[in-house]
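pinned: reference chain
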Amino acid sequence: MSGALNIDLHTHSNCSDGYLTPAALIERAAAAGVEVLALTDHDTVAGLGEAWASAQALGLKLVPGVEISAAWRAQAIHVLGLWIDPASPELRAMLHAQGELRRARMRKICARLDKLKLPGAQLLAAVEVHPGLPTRAHLAQALVAGGHVATPDAAFRKYLSKGKAAHIAAEWPALEEVVGWIRGAGGVASLAHPARYSLSAGARRRLLGDFTAAGGTALEVVSGGNGAQHVETCASLAMSHGLLGSVGSDFHNPQAAWNPLGRSLKLPDCVTPVWRSFGL
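pinned: its structure tokens
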């Protein structure tokens, strides 16, 4: 295993669906011994300014990042943009469009819930109270708070997952388009949590082939919640497609004790680290 540095290149704040403010996230990471951290909120860079100020004060190296939703053969895929220029006008315009997609989808989902005799307008208002972009995770929390389901998982199982009564398929931009946005902003495109997608082994290889052809650079070999078998498979995929390796906790919630910041994120020696290109 490689890496003297404690590196975590996939985290979320309350600017998307995380629980902590960007400053609180940085403080928690520093207290946990993380030395290099990427803030990669969903489809927004709104938290990077606050995170940068906190990182500077605490001596932690912040990697400016974002996690962008994309589509590949009708499958939703998440692409991390690492070492991006968050001030890129083109990237900001595209992320604004992503935000509008998210808001329109949330309105449609809540309209469906209304037809199911749930208080759709009230649930939408509860989601919109949050400071970040609206996500289905926020809606699941609102359904719990309203006493309509017992847990967020139950909200997805009963209403929000694919095939359920309130599900609305997202119309995300194509994978190659998203990779182009990241590269245009000077960033490195890294495919997030590749073991999490509902794909056959063959489809996953085709996904990585298309990702690499589009200009993708890295693969998240170690991701929060993945077991050793996933790491081995992802390392093999990275090597076979000529991709660099990344690591990230995908941290959202400090109450999820099984997935702390920087949790044993060790990249196998057989994979070249993406951060090596940046002198780390």
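why pinned: The CA atoms of residues 14 and 21 lie 5 Å apart. The two ends are 16 Å apart (CA to CA).
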